[in-house]
Amino acid sequence: MRTTAVRPRRVAVLGATGCVGRHVCAAFAGRGTDVVAVARRAARHMSPYTFRSVDVGRSTSTELAGLFAEWRVDTVVNAMLGWGESACEMADANVRPVEGLLAALRSLAGPVRYVHLGTIHEYGPIPYGTAVDETAEPRPTSLYARSKLTASRLVLDAVARGECDGVVLRLTNTLGPYTAPESFFGALAARLRRAAPGEVTDVAVAAAHRDFVDVRDAAAAVYAATAERAPEPLMNIGRGEAVAVETLVRALVQVSGLPPEAVRLRRAQVRSRSAGADWIQVDPARARRSLGWQPGYRPTDSLRAVWRTVEPAEVPFTPR
Predict the structure, then answer these.
(1) Which CATH class for the 10-178+214-238+282-295 domain?
(2) Of the listed 49, 144, 178, 223, which one is catalytic?
(3) Where are the alpha helices (DSSP H) in the chain?
(4) pLDDT for 200-244, tens place per residue?
(5) Any idea where the domains of the chain sit in the sequence?
(6) How many C-alpha atoms does 81 have within 13 Å on its Cβ side?
(7) What rounded mean pLDDT belongs to the chain?
């Protein structure tokens, strides 16, 4: 069940220069919303938008509220991704900024829609062969996932108390154009691009299955969560199918035009640092029902986009 659509007029996208954030900016701009792109440092692909250099994690709630009021935004999307080596560093990266954001939103004179991007890893290990839905009790095992869960719960509690007009979207693994260079498929595509003719690339692949959603579909879900005042404050965003990572590696080689023997696969363990497990699959039924959203890109479409857009690190860009 959905409510009447309310088209956002101006959105502040926090973490705008990241892999997900850049596509969120494009999704809003493509639908006629004025975009204020917010990040610590500018990037060349931010030039179509109004860019503001802000370190959200180091800003007070009063400063953030002042900025939101100055920019006259009616929507805020938190697409920031933080990392640390300890629980304290993870909290500083993922929890403290959300505490400041929620305090800032509470102090604003007018209502502002808030979309918080969480992660499917907040649920912790998912039993093999099953699809996790929003009723599952989260049991994250990594420092990253625990900090993200804490942040999501702050938002959900604020929504339940009526202090925030917000929604949490737990994204599964994303794939598609301009994928993060440090991600598995981003790094692999770059290696294959650099490989000399006839060179064989050794690839360590875990015996894992992942639910990959195209980042453009994920961005469309973010927009829908602002335009539709859905009654559910928590929704999973994914394709709803788990695909073997090895299958996707072979598909990437195929779309690259390289011969199958261009890669040599060897078995590897699932990295505990990755916050994943051997199986990740979501049940996206709630998002489809509430937002009228469904993914439009197939994994092969996403891999073609990965290959098409893989490139060396971008030259630092200073906006004029």
Answers:
(1) alpha beta
(2) 144
(3) 19-29, 61-71, 87-94, 96-107, 143-160, 184-194, 215-227, 245-256, 285-291, 299-309
(4) 999 999 889 999 999 999 999 999 999 866 679 999 999 999 999
(5) 10-178+214-238+282-295
(6) 11
(7) 91
Q: How far is CA 108 from CA 67, 74, 270, in A?
A: 10, 11, 44
DSSP 97: H
What are the structure tokens assigned to 273, written together?
Answer: 């640092």
Using pLDDT thresholds of 50, 70 and 90, give the confidence band for residue 5.
low
Q: How far apart are CA 170 and CA 161, in angstroms?
A: 21
pLDDT above 90 as % of the chain: 83
Residue 203, amino acid:
V
Quick one: pLDDT at residue 82? 86
Q: Is 144 a catalytic residue?
A: yes
C-alpha separations of 173 from 6, 42, 121, 264 in Å: 28, 25, 9, 24
Kindly report the number of other CB atoms within 10 A of residue 83's CB atom. Answer: 11
Distance CA 154, CA 248 (A): 35
